[in-house]
Design a protein that fits this description.
It contains ten helices and no strands. α2 runs antiparallel to α3, α2 runs antiparallel to α10 and α3 runs antiparallel to α4. Helices cover about 85% and strands about 0% of the residues. The protein has two domains: about 130 residues, Flagellar protein FliS (Four Helix Bundle (Hemerythrin (Met), subunit A)); about 120 residues, Four Helix Bundle (Hemerythrin (Met), subunit A).
Length: about 290
């Protein structure tokens, strides 16, 4: 009798393992798939927002913090993405699996673009150019103004000295005024046009300084200040030409936004498909 009971138990276990999953298990997988797809959409939204903050950040610390948030969101996406793939395979949900594969393809493109954008944003060339313009370049211009004021005091009755000093300062102010549009300009041709105007102003300032040399006394301080200003300006143009912040912003607002929309479209498609799944009526009786 005991032997018969053991044989029966073994037979029952073998039959159970050969049967399909009970409806409750299928329902559980469906619910988990719905949860994972919803979580994927949330984490992708977080990644998109963190990437935007990294591009818009005006300090290195803020950019680094946003990049860290982006990495955290991407890690969660990878985890949920893998888990959802397993669930859909176990459920044999073909359409949802195809949408997930499309999402993974777009996600790879999105991730590669994000790396490019973050590398550009972290160079911060436009921000650095702006800081030079508002800092050292402004200081050099003010030093030149003070030096020219002293020059004119040496010849208070000479209108020609005052005129040359004023023209020289006007040229420097023109260069300063053109720095800001150059720093934010995305088009190379437009920057070239701005540089042509700047070069004319710089040439005029140098000519006026040379002319002052025949009319006034010592111009050592004015000459040193002008050299410092033009040297700083050359560095500003070099940084501005790199355009890392402008380029990263253009990519973020253009190609990245389009890829993000494509990723979200696939994730929403998975959610809608899973929401429409019906595993059939469950038995209420024994």
């Amino acid at each position: 009798m005991r032997r018969a009971a053991i044989v029966f138990l073994i037979s029952a276990m073998a039959m159970s393992s050969s049967c399909a999953e009970p409806p409750l298990t299928v329902l559980g997988r469906l619910m988990e798939s719905r949860r994972l797809s919803a979580e994927l959409l949330v984490q992708f939204a977080k990644a998109t927002e963190a990437g935007n903050r990294a591009v818009m950040a005006d300090t290195e610390d803020a950019s680094a913090a946003a990049a860290s948030d982006l990495q955290t969101a991407m890690q969660a996406i990878d985890r949920d993405n893998a888990a959802l793939g397993i669930e859909l395979k176990e459920l044999s949900y073909g359409p949802e699996s195809e949408l997930l594969a499309e999402f993974q393809k777009r996600l790879a493109e999105f991730r590669a673009l994000d790396r490019e954008i973050l590398e550009l944003a972290q160079l911060d060339t436009n921000v650095k150019a702006q800081r030079l313009s508002f800092g050292p370049a402004q200081e050099a211009a003010e030093a030149l103004r003070s030096a020219l004021t002293e020059v004119t005091k040496q010849a208070p009755q000479d209108w020609r000295v005052r005129a040359l000093a004023a023209e020289m300062m006007a040229s420097v102010r023109e260069i300063q005024a053109l720095q800001a549009p150059h720093i934010v300009e995305p088009d190379d041709a437009a920057m070239t046009n701005l540089e042509a105007r700047i070069d004319r102003a710089a040439s005029s300032a140098k000519q006026n300084l040379a002319a002052l040399g025949t009319k006034a006394g010592s111009l050592a301080a004015a000459s040193a200040a002008l050299d410092r200003f033009l040297s700083t300006h050359a560095e500003i143009v070099k940084l501005s030409r790199s355009n890392s912040n402008v380029r990263s912003l253009a990519l973020a607002l253009g190609k990245r936004r389009a890829l993000a929309a494509a990723c979200e479209e696939r994730l929403r498609g998975i959610q809608e498909a899973l929401a429409g799944r019906d595993i059939g009526p469950r038995r209420s009786g024994p």
